[in-house]
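Q: Sequence in, structure out?
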Amino acid sequence: MLFVIFAVVTFVIGLFLGGFIERASYALPRGEFREIVAPKCSSCGRALPRKTFIPLVGSALLAFRCPHCGERKGLRLFLTELIYAASLLLLYVFFYGQYSFYLYAVLIAVLLSLSLIDLDIREVPHSLMLAVLGIGVLVFVFSFFTFSQADTIWWEHLVGAVVISVPLFILMMVTGGIGGGDVKLMFCLGLVLGFKLTFFAFLVGVVVAALCAIVLRLAFGKGGQYQLPLVPFLSLGTLVALLCGNAVIAAVI
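A: Exactly. Output:
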């Protein structure tokens, strides 16, 4: 019973944190930190009602529009709240009673913020990248104290840091088709995940990105103007890897 109660509480907390993540993701690259506590319409610049702070319901009450100018808004906030709450609930279920739940909860929050910023401006802020690196360092330190055979040992994290990031760096230098932020992110994520889960996360991210690219190509044609930022897909791959990567790898191998 307590498990269910805490699961509900975790989901609700995730909704509130999701709203904070969305507002912070808009404010951070623009230096408009007041937007976090006093959001304004990006179109008309007028303050949005306090009801927007109510998770899920707030945006719906405004019909996903600015009440002043009628500009469509709030859908991204709604989805971000829902995505982080669902992610936090899944992490709670899979890592119940483990310290790693808290580390991964912070990691997914940072990755969600990075994804939103990458979707907006195609850049990866160094401050958030350092946060991912910090989590990677913590996981690496904890790996020296293995508690079971299922734990990843320290050298796997070091290999994970370079197993994908180095080939991506070479690809970036040769073709320029990969951004430096993607390379740095894979280095940091590799330090967190270890080499097996890093492979798995990257594979999931690339496959989903390829499927989305095919859908966009079919929808807009060869001449369609669209770009797919990689960070959201790498973040999705990381979440999937954390939740079921080890089970899938064990089943395949």
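The mean pLDDT is 86.
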